Amino acid sequence: MLNEERIILMTKLASYETGEGKKNAAIGKYFRSDYIGAQVIKSIISATIAFFVVFALYILYDFETFMLDIYKMDLFVFAKNILKAYAVVVIGFAVLTYIVYTYRYSKAKKSLKNYYGNLKKLASLYEKNKH
Amino acid sequence: MRNLLEIKEIIKRIYGKYDVFIMPVLKLILALVTFFSINKQLGYMARINSGAIVMMVALLCSFLPTGFIIFFAAVFVLLHCYALAIEVALVVFCLFLVIALLFFRFSPKDSLVIVVTPLLFGLKIPYLAPLAMGLIGTPASAVSIGCGVVVYYLIRFISINAPSISAIDAAEAVARLRMVIDGILDNKEMLVMIAAFAFAVVVVYIIRRLSIDHAWTIAMIAGAFVNVVILLLGDLVYDINVSVLGVLFGSLVSLGICVVLQFFVFSVDYTRTEKVQFEDDEYYYYVKAVPKMTVAAPEKTVKRINAQVGRSTHAGSVHQPARSASGNRTPGRQAPSRTISTRDSGYTDRDIELEEDTDDYEEI
């Protein structure tokens, strides 16, 4: 026999699985630290590329003066300044990523918890039907 | 008001029925408008200027995810810049790359704003972007709008200065590069716009979340006000030649459009028909879940006024609940129309009960 209550619940679950649930399930596969760690590493890589792109443009902007000055200036101090700027950008971006993805992870987990709750409810409906 | 609500229901019904076609058509229109405006503004590469190519790419965008509109728009801009001068293309590519790496890294839901904001600038109503995003987005939407503003001013700068860029001798690549970078960084008007829009988004967001009556409307007006004030202040401080009348008129029009959008788009739950498949031990299920349609039937409010000796007016109100299309009563879906009727009559059931209680007390 078709059980209407069961079908409604299953439809809701199936629609969640194909929509929002897909992303959440992908997040839910990871441990919290693994997921956030991976995202932070990805962010560090993107920030590094972005930093070097901007740095290259900065050098190109004043290329002639830079080439003239390169023999005169203290390269050590120059490198130190660049590294400092790089550290600020990367750390800032990593912290931002950490905050954003911690929030996203907890949200996904909450949503999945609700989904699992509904799955349990569905299982109990089947049990009830058997008896 | 009732007519408007009925129109809203009709739109909702049409969307629920034909959403499979409506979304691609909307995407197609957005893509067409975007690519044509890019071609009109830049248009240095004759090959991609043809309508056929634009149509083909737009059709492609209509069934691909929305992110592809942004991708193809960026490709169009880059190709035009390349045709103008390779140095310009280099700077634009670096800028797009940085935006992609730092901003799209978070795959924000409102990334389409980056395309829509420059289009709104073209329509002279950029002020709509912060108001609308404050209402439906989060303060983080300020970043997307900021990127959109940068893209608009970049394209405008290139479009205005194209003759002088090509006039510079090709051997002086660095000079061209410098000109474009200066053009982007020294643009005070752009910075003021970004600041004004960011503030407006935050103000609209904060106010619309307050638990006060008409929070959304107040938020919109406050946002538009903050926007105008910051733009005029920026004009005073940096002397950026913002047209005061243009700002005021643009803000008013944006406010008007925002009210319409809020009524028909933002506050409506456009649930759509869903088709899902699943199975259990006994059956395969192919379910088509169609959202229930409520017809905004005219509601009747009956007021009974019984004049009795020694008693003041006794009032009660009877509501006739709305019926769903299928004729079944749907308590969950009646809530909105019921609230409207009580607001219209100016009484709530609770108020009336309280009145009766006081009368009884006096008699005793």
Description:
The complex is a heterodimer of chains A (131) and B (364). Chain A is an all-alpha fold. Chain A has a domain at 32-120. In chain A, 89% of the residues lie in helices and 0% in strands. Chain A has helices at residues 4-18, 20-28, 32-61, 63-69, 75-130. Chain B has 364 residues and is mainly alpha-helical. Chain B has 2 domains: 2-266, no CATH class; 294-363, no CATH class. In chain B, 67% of the residues lie in helices and 7% in strands. In chain B, the strands form 2 sheets. Chain B has a two-stranded antiparallel ribbon. In chain B, strands 3-4 form a two-stranded antiparallel sheet. In chain B, strand 3 and strand 4 (314-319) form a beta hairpin. In chain B, helix 5 packs across helix 7 (141-167), helix 6 crosses helix 10 and helix 7 packs antiparallel against helix 8. Chain B is globular. Chain A binds chain B through residues 2, 6-7, 10-11, 13-15, 18, 42-43, 46-47, 49-50, 53-54, 56-57, 60-64, 93, 97, 100, 126, and chain B through 91, 94, 97-98, 101-102, 105-106, 174, 177-178, 181, 274, 276-278, 280, 283, 285, 287, 289.
Any chance you could write out the topology, listing elements then pairs?
The complex is a heterodimer of chains A (131) and B (364).
Chain A lengths: L3 H15 L1 H9 L3 H30 L1 H7 L5 H56 L1
Helix pairs in contact in A: 1-2, 1-5, 2-5, 3-5
Chain B lengths: L1 H40 L9 H13 L3 H18 L1 H17 L10 H10 L5 H9 L4 H27 L5 H13 L2 H21 L6 H24 L5 H23 L7 E6 L4 E6 L11 E6 L7 E6 L11 H15 L3 H15 L1
Antiparallel strand pairs in B: 1-2, 3-4
Fraction in helix of chain A: over 70%
Strand content of chain B: 5-15%
Count of beta strands of chain B? 4
Main interface: chain pair and counts: A-B, 28 and 21 residues
Question: What is the element string of chain A, with H for helices and E for strands?
Answer: HHHHH
Q: Summarize the main sheet of chain B.
A: 2 strands, antiparallel
Shape of chain A: rod-shaped
Question: Structural class, judged by helices and strands of chain A?
Answer: mainly alpha
Q: What's the Cα radius of gyration of chain A?
A: 26 Å
Question: What is the rounded distance between the termini of chain A?
Answer: 14 Å
Q: How many angstroms separate the termini of chain B?
A: 44 Å
Main sheet record of chain A: none
Structural class of chain B: mainly alpha
Uncertain runs of chain B: 311-364
Strand adjacency order, main sheet of chain B: 1-2
By DSSP, the count of extended strands of chain A is 0
Alpha carbon gyration radius of chain B: 27 Å
* Oligomer category: heterodimer
